[in-house]
Amino acid sequence: MTETENKTCQNCHKEFTIEAEDFDFYKKIDVPAPTWCSECRFKRRLVFRNERKLFWNTDARNNKKLLSLYPPDSRKKIYPDSFWWSDEWDPMNYGKEYDPTHPFLEQVEELSRFVPVYARDVLTEVNSQYSANASELKNCYLLFNSNISEDCAYGNGVDRSRNCFDNSHIAKCERCYDSFWLVGCYQTDFSVDCEDCNNVWLSKNCRGCSNCVGCVNLRMKKYCVFNKQYTKEEYEKQLVGLKLDTYNGLIEARAQAKKFWNTFPNKYLNGTHNENVSGAYISYSKNVRGSYLIRESENLKYVQYSQVPFSKDVYDTTLTGNKAELMYENVVCGWGGYNVKFSYECWPDIRNIEYSMFCGSSSDLFGCVGLHKKQYCILNRQYTKEDYEKLKKRIIEDMEKAPYIDKQGRRYGYGEFFPMEISPFAYNQTIAPEHRPLTKGMALAQGFRWQDPDPREYKITMKASDLPQSTKEVLQTIFEEIIQCERCKRAYRRYIVARASVQAPTRQIAKGKWSIRTPPHTPTATNLARMSSRQATPPTAPRLCIVNNAINLRSSDCAVPIHSSKSEGGRRVIKMKLCRRY
User: Fold this and answer.
1) Rg (CA), the chain
2) Which of 307, 333, 405, 559 could serve as a FRET partner for 527 with CA atoms 20 to 30 Å apart?
C-alpha cells in the first residue's frame, strides 16, 4: 500500500493530499494519481453540464430552428433527439486516423465538432418539448434531469412525480410545490427533507406527518403548528390565523418558520441507514466520502448525484448511478457502466471506455464520439482487438510525451479529464455557479468562458408589488399584463401549455406506497387547480423566488402558474406567467 502523499494542485496551486486508499483505487483502475485537487477536478467537470438553459440552435440536416442544450456558439452540430438515436446516420463516417504529431485530446475535440449530438437529451416525451436531460415525461415544462413524471414544471431532479412545480430533487411526489429533497409526499409545500408527508407546509425533516405547518424533526404527527400539538378544530383555526392564502401572510409564515428551524441543531449529515460516510444527503450507503446526493452506493469518493442505485467503486464522477462500477473522472456516465474513465455523456451499458463522448451500448472505445453498439474503436475508426490495444498503448505514451497544453499553461496528460476550455458551455451556462459561484472576472481569470445574456427589452405593464394579495382577487385581465419580477427585474410573459389529450390515471399515496386509481371524473390537470381547492400561493409568487434554506439547488427561473386549467377546443390548457432568465 502506497503511503499518503501531499501534492500541489497545478490549477489552484494549493496543497492537497492523496491518501493510501486513493492510491489503491488508482492502481485498481490503472491510472496515474491526479495533478489537480478534488475541488478543481469538480469545477472542471461541472462546466460540461448544462441543466438549466435551452437555446435556439439549428438542425444540422436542414438548418431549421430547434431548441437545444447547446448554444449556437458551442460549435456543435445538432440533430433532433429522435433522429440522433435512429440508425439513419452513422457516426463512423466521421472517423479519423490518429495523428501522433498533434496532442490526442486536441484530436478528440476536433472530432466532437463534426459528429452531431442530440439536441435536448430527452427520451420518450409527450408534450414536453421544453424539457431536457430527461426521460419518460408527459405534459412537463422546463424540467431538467428528471424522469417518469407528468404535469410538472420548473424543476430539476424530479422523478416519478406528478403535478409538482418549482421543486428540486423530489421522488414519488404529487402536488408538491417549492420544496427540496422530498420522497413520497403529497401536497407538501415550501419544505425540505421530508418523507411520506401529506398536507405539510414550511417544514423540515419530517416523516409520516400530515396537516402540519412550520414543523421540524417530527415523526408520525398530525395537526401541529411549529411543533405544537392541536386538535383538528384548533389546527384549522390556526391556519385561518396564519393567512397562508395571502402573499403577506405567507411571507410572514416563511420568516417565522425559518427562525423556528434555526432553533434546532442540524444533524451532521442529512441521510439515513449509512455506514462510514461523509458528505451530504446520503442514504443506504457504505464507505462514501466527500460525496453529495447519493443513494444505495458503496466505496465512493468525491462523487455527486448518484441517486439511482447502485454505484460501486467510483471516484470523481458527477451524475452517475444505476449499476455503475469502476468509474473515474466522468460526467453523466453509468447506467450499466463498468470501467469508464475521463468520459462525458456515455450511457447506457458501456464497458472499458476512455476519453469518449455521447457513446452507449459499446465497449473498448478510446477517444470516440457518438458511437453505439461498437467495440475496439479509436477516434471513430474500427480496429481489430490486437491493433486497438497496440494503438491505445501508443497513444497513452504519446499523451505523456506530448500532452495537451491549455491557454493557461496547464498540462493534460493521460489521467486528466477533458480540458475545460473545450467545454461547449460558458461557466455561467452550466450548473457550476450553483455549486461554486464565481464572478465573471474570477471565471475568466481561472480559464473558464463566460457568456453575457442577450439584452432583452419588455414593456412592463405591472410591477410585482401591484399584484393582488390573494388568488381570489385575480382578474382575467392578468393574462394581458407584462409583469416585472421583483427579484430579477425582468418580465413575466404569458405562456400557454396545451396538455396531451390522452388521459392517464392519477397517482396517490396509500400507506407510504404508490397506488393507482382512475378518477370517476376528469381529473384536475395540474398543480394549478390547487389554488381553488386549498390555501395556496397567491399569484404574487414572482416575489417568492426564495432559494430553499437547506441548499441552493433551485432553477434560475422565476416562474409560477397563476390560473387553473380549462378546456379549449377539447384540450386541457394551462396558462402561466414566466420570467425567462436564459
Assistant:
1) 25
2) 307
